[in-house]
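Changelog note: in this version the structure field was regenerated for every chain. One regenerated record is shown below for reference.
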Amino acid sequence: MRLYKLFLISLLLTFVNKSQGQFKDKPWSLSINSNIINLQGDKVAKGFNFGGPAVGISRHVVSWISLGTQFAFGSANNLTDPAFPYDYSSLDGFIKANILNKSLRPYIIGGYGFSKFSDGIERSGFFPSTETSRTLFGGIGFSVSLNESFEINFQSTYRGMNENYGFNHLQHFVGFNYKFGSIDSDKDGVSDKKDKCPDVPGLKEYEGCPDTDGDSIIDKDDKCPEIPGLLEFNGCIDSDNDGISDPEDTCPNEAGKIEMNGCPDEDGDGLPNNKDSCINEVGPIENNGCPWPDSDGDGINDNEDKCKDEVGPIKNNGCPELSSEIVKTLNEFGSRINFAANSYQIYGRTTLDNLLKIKNLLDENKQGSLIIEGYTSADGDEDYNKKLSDKRAQAVRSYLIKLGVSAERLEVKGFGEVNPIGDNDNPSGRAINRRVQFKTKLY
């Protein structure tokens, strides 16, 4: 049952949608029909009485509904009493539900009105004659389209009279409908059928579309509908005459290049002025269009200078270095710093005096950094010796920092038992291998 109801609803919505289009262009309908009366009741003959015409006019009002009025007249003869023929007339208001939007269009009709069977005898009454009766009616019909304006119409309704005088009867129409008029939703004088902008008031010369700025480009095609513009710019202007319309121009008041969205590039470095921090100097994009500075004046630009705040040679990437003579002297002092086997402790007057001399030499040469290399003899495990050599280098670094050397100037690296300078097969050779060495730090 639920599926059946859903089907009926879907079918009804389809009818509504399809019918809407049919009546939008020609909402008015004038019908002229023959009027055929078929009396109903117990004491009447059921014969057909032909007469006419019947004239009606209706208008589509919403969706698939039309409202209208109709007038019909003719004659009716109760064949069981042929001495009393009747003049017949009716006047009604009706509502019609149009079902399909096809060449064959069925519909349902119903309404309320008045019917009169007059036998020529004067009678007084409420309407003012009792021959006139209030009438409810309803029925079905269908129209067959001949073209956009004309239809053949067939209609049959049952009319129930509420007064004492008269007959319930069937009324049949056969005739033509003439459809006319047009809907103009936006009231601009152009019917919706011909109006390309039916919901917005427009001009007839633009098929019902508006042109707010008067540039001969209708608003729906105009990217700048309130500013008079040119067709080549889709209704917009090009204030700086650089070939790019203002809405697409990042710099609309400065003539520029298409590839830079309409902005100029004063210095030609590939960066537009609006993004270039140095518009009169060629510079790389990664430095916002400015040339790289040389902050320390050592001839190496900051982007390539690994020590941009310290003067240094090119071979050391702009970083300062200690001369080979100073490093040689440092190593002379360092050769006198020895460690006991399996130890990284710093002790002994000679060792402490040499560390102080190293500190003083570094104070006299404040530019440049050192790598302190730690070594061991070949006694013991190789991995253990590697760790021990690192601890010896760290011990020297910590002592120099304690003496006042900047920690940033000192790095350490342990090498274990490699690169011996003495013979590991005798005690004196192993003793001098337990040492540290110094190298200038390179970048």
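Spot check on this record: The domain at 15-180 is CATH 2.40.160.20 (Porin). Residues 2-25 form the longest helix (24 residues).
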